[in-house]
């Protein structure tokens, strides 16, 4: 009986085991051990990459919220900025200014700024910017005729409900991003990564502060309406002062008026002469030539 060699059989069995190991699924124990070994040999993952991934998760949610996404209850309580300006002609500008300021204080408002010109002349002008609660804005406007004659008036409105909602959504997402970066900063031990994270965190907090300030400005403008009140005064000439003017001043005034009349008359004459020059200049020259010719004739 012929004996079969054992060495070729051993080679065949080993080759089968190798083929089976290479074709094993990823979840197999051998693959898991290989993945663990590879991860252990790959080194530490950069923290800046982890921070940027955390930022990327929050970025899509921080996009501007469309108007359709605003909750109905928020749209029912719309935030509207109202501004206006009014010009009133008054008899006594000083007392009228005090009355306007008193009315603003009664309505729960305040004077934001005020400026005046020509207070020592007959053409005084005072411009005051006041702010009152939005619910009192119409009442303030309707009260202006009691101070004098309203000569100009304008009102405009701006709906900022969607803008405030959008700022709220962006601030929420940025604060979530801030918390994630703080968590990463607490876990990191490498100096380089700590410095990078602190710089990114500082920039993020600056952005949060800017958005928060914008939101406060919009909310404040919607809560308190702004009205610019301009008070003007008609020129008043005192009769007593006119009577006290001396005769010399009156005479001087009449003389100046007469001289101005004479200058106007001379100017008008010069204009007429220039316009009609094509007619009278040739006639004058012809007349001069005839006179000269007659004088040149010898006497018989």
Q: In words, what does this structure look like?
A:
The chain has 300 residues and is an alpha+beta fold. It has eleven helices and five strands; from the N terminus they run ααααβαββαβααβααα. About 15% of the residues have low confidence. The radius of gyration is 47 Å and the shape is elongated. Helix content is 60%, strand content 16%. Strand 2 and strand 3 form a beta hairpin.
| Overall form | elongated
CATH topology of one domain: Alpha-Beta Plaits
The rounded distance between the terminal residues' Cα atoms is 189 Å
Side by side, the strands of the main sheet go: 2-3-5-1-4
CATH architectural name of one domain: 2-Layer Sandwich
- In the CATH hierarchy, what is the class of one domain? Alpha Beta
Number of strands: 5
Biggest β-sheet description: 5 strands, mixed
Could you list the spans in which at least 5 consecutive residues all have pLDDT below 50? 22-51, 53-68
Strand content: 15-25%
- What is the radius of gyration computed over CA atoms, rounded to a whole number of angstroms? 47 Å
SSE class? alpha+beta
Overall pLDDT, averaged? 75
Q: Into which percent range does the helicity of residues fall? A: 55-70%
Tally of alpha and pi helices: 11
SSE order in H/E notation?
A: HHHHEHEEHEHHEHHH
Topology of this structure?
Layout: H1 7-22, H2 29-41, H3 47-58, H4 72-76, E1 80-90, H5 93-106, E2 110-117, E3 125-133, H6 137-142, E4 149-159, H7 161-187, H8 191-223, E5 224-233, H9 239-243, H10 247-275, H11 277-296
Parallel strand pairs: 1-5
Antiparallel strand pairs: 1-4, 2-3, 3-5
Helix pairs in contact: 3-7, 7-8
